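User: Quick sanity check before I run a bigger batch. Here is a single chain. Can you write out its predicted 3D structure?
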Amino acid sequence: MTTTTKLITAAELLAMPDDGYRYELARGVLTEKMPPPGYRHGAVTNRFAYAITGYCEENDYGAVVENAGFRLESDPDTVRAPDIAWIAPGRITEAIAGYPSLIPDLAVEVKSPNDTPREMAERAAMWLNYGSREVWAANPNPVSITRYRPGAEPEVLGEDDILDGGDLLPGFSIPVWRLFRRRR
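Assistant: Done. Predicted structure follows.
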């Protein structure tokens, strides 16, 4: 006897009732049922979003969203959501409803307590394979950011280093430790 899995669409995912968990689609299959992340994860995600959003507002440069889904493939649908996404200027309008069919230029993933280094690297590789120009994988303990770029070795920045925006966010610069806490 053969068992088949019913594939669902991005529209069906969007219409699902909120049960407190976070879902994604991988070629029509519901995946990654996760409980809401803890306080530390939320605080670090907020600090990254605040820093990048401040840069974007000050420079009128691109758009930032937190935990927003993006349709990466269709028929069957794949919908993934980085903790934070930055979209380059002119690629998206604020009026989009649902899951836009585009790839974030920058994806930021914040490590949850149960995430392994391998899972974080796989998540970064997934974003790069779909076409993200850069991925920042943030680890609250020990404080570090691993910067992934296509065709380059990952670069690990410690809390004493400075994270710059490179070609994506020209002029963006912040001490790594500031993305994880208010005071040193």
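The mean pLDDT is 93.

User: Great, the batch can go ahead then.
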